[in-house]
């Protein structure tokens, strides 16, 4: 039963429902045990009202649901994304009152929504996993449908180890797939990996969710998170009611990671009583595209060792690198451990990867993994239990992880096509990134670093003071205002920099460079010019 | 920096690491700002020790990670399940020292891990979604691979609406699939449904996780949960640090749901200061199999209306019904609303369904949905944001939801095979359930109600006092002890009743009736007799 306070709250919310008290409720009201006869008449009255109210008003409202969910911000799929979907639906219905004929979702790294084609080898294998009866007619597949013998072999290998993709797997993933991941890590890093330390997850997001759930013990638990960042981290920390400890990346140094800056953020948080437990590194960066040098990774690991911080290395863009070279945190840590026996043994590293990005681009399949170095067995047991509650990650997504880490090799029947598709996606992304970058260079008040990697550019914008005033009048930040006008004028949906965090006084937006063609780039240029002229 | 207390803690944990202080750390130590010269010598000493310790000891341990994860219990994939996987691996390696030749995972409702074959129509469609290039050779599919024209049509319909199954969908699911679900709800319940109130999820588990995250605001938020229950609910509430308010199902009345019992539990919780906000109903029940009558559903909804409780109807077993008839909460609520204008408008109902159970049995694909009635728009916005953070549910799983709710109909080319497969799975489950039930009837000290539905039997066991003593000596409950011995002797893995909750003083275990053949049933009977003889 609601308290008197609740009743008052209800009264304020919706007085009209009190006009009538239906007779049907009276019986029930009388059957309640009342504390004292003195209170009876008032209490009956209240109970009556309240019961009627109760039946006519939902229990949940913004003021009484989980406040930590309410506090969470997630701009990538926020107001702009919702509006862009409304425009898309309008266009689909044939409504022609919009100043554009297509919505370009440059707000989200979703390659196959735009132009990226899936890798043939991967999808051929998956088609057999979904319908193993296809293997009853191998010759038809080989002769008429373009399947190669290695496709059939891989499908048989996976089916033998999985049974059915319709069955739950072990909670942390199919053992044979974890073995493939371990072999990949060994080839990539030069150090053997233990399949038992690998956890297959529904994309990297689910892995991040698991790890943060384990690491954060209470509201004072703090996690160092790069800013700008992919908002998964801040949103998940909000929901968990833990503390985000932001550290800024250095835009002037190509969005580099500076350990000095990290230390400042760390020390400030400690002074405020935050129990900083972990540091997140996104490498290559999202939204910045920056790859860390080996020396930078070393200094982050050194710092983590000194301060006893868990390291979470989000490495989902490890193959999306145009400038520099990807070094895995795992490889660097294991090298440091080898060169300094005993010194770095206590470092806990969780590295995350995904099938969603890179040349795979299979976001919709929700596949990924994280691997652990240095975690105590008793903590891993809790991780295992936590992932068990959600049963297992999608098994077809797990199979894609296997295909990603173990693609066709030179000499395999599917290799030539695989290599051609892979390289063509890579070159296509680079070309689009460059075209967009060139356009930004020409735009007044826009500054953008050379494309380094990932799937995004994150230009700085300088807007006239009048635009900032107009934004304020709408209750928006200037970057939100700019992005909203861009969407309305061009159908291009990007994300304001405030969705990722940005230094006070700076404005940015994040755009993917996945969309094909140059028309949408031209439309951004045209819009920008008009926007600047209007508010000059 | 760790406090002195932390240093002491470290000292207790692992004193050996203090033997040497490596010179490499001294420089860093000196660079620290020290508060006063007086403190310097002690502090430097401490910092040195600590820094070295820090580098050699993981940060996380059972005592400092998220206590709510540590508290959570999840028996379905607990110690017994882990041990059964070890046995399975042993058998795979050809080790022959076990007294059985096969592990039967009767601990988890995982139809396709055992014998249930996927429905052909579903998997043929999915194979095309994974490899749309198959549509370049339609005639080959039709003439040589057993595909029918409606398979091709459905695949084209889904591809048209989805684009690629490798792309993220809208956060709450593909709009066209939500429309199919809405039509299904209308056909099933006789009331139209709004696609915008439907959220596609990664199995029902993920839907439950979302809803509990929204509903529970703080530790005093309480949710009424049936006992025995599927431990997803208790485990999720532990992780969320909210309060589970158990209500017992009545074993003597075929595991019926009694509103009187619910009221008692509710009132007791209120008296203890719990802010009870919702009631979970699992219908048909897991692990009990019981289906609620229409009258029982009405009385639960009446109670929810009176006490202003959100209703969560977990209806994943809606087609696994052998005795009685499935009535959806949605149909009953909308009927009550129609017959009593205005009276039940405030009831919030979330109904959950899944592709994992029923004759579909596609657990590994992680597909499901929940639909909402009566939730405020401002609350739904928060639900939308919450599901956005994890981006979207697996798109292939979403497609399976579409196929489940919109299967081939009479006259469609695939209908006859579909109907035959569907009925054969249903009859097979019923036959196996009956065989297991008959075996339990013959076992001394075992009582089991007639199979009613779902995928489980949940017999009561009475074990001799000596067995209870032996269990205590091992630190186990008697039912855990019984199940562990059963696994060791027969390779059959079941879940102790304590994993689902059971009335004080009673013992049960849950077994699926999915495994084929009768040999495993005989081995349970044989084990049971020996167990009873040994401890008599």
From TrEMBL, chains A, B:
Keywords on this record?
Aminotransferase, Pyridoxal phosphate, Transferase
**Which Pfam family, an example, fits this chain?**
Aminotran_1_2
Q: Which domain of life is it from?
A: Eukaryota
Which Gene3D superfamilies does the record match to this protein? 1.10.287.1970, Aspartate Aminotransferase, domain 1, Type I PLP-dependent aspartate aminotransferase-like (Major domain)
* Record flagged with keyword Transferase: yes
What is an example of a GO molecular function annotated in this UniProt entry?
pyridoxal phosphate binding
Q: Where is the Aminotransferase class I/classII large domain?
A: 159-518
Q: Does the keyword Endoplasmic reticulum apply?
A: no
Q: Which cofactor does it need?
A: pyridoxal 5'-phosphate
Family annotation (InterPro entries)? ALAT1/2-like, Aminotransferase_I/II_large, PyrdxlP-dep_Trfase, PyrdxlP-dep_Trfase_major, PyrdxlP-dep_Trfase_small
SUPFAM superfamilies membership: PLP-dependent transferases
Quaternary structure, from the entry:
Homodimer.
Assigned protein family: Belongs to the class-I pyridoxal-phosphate-dependent aminotransferase family. Alanine aminotransferase subfamily.
Query: What is the protein name given in its UniProt record?
Result: Glutamate pyruvate transaminase
The species this protein was found in: Xylaria bambusicola
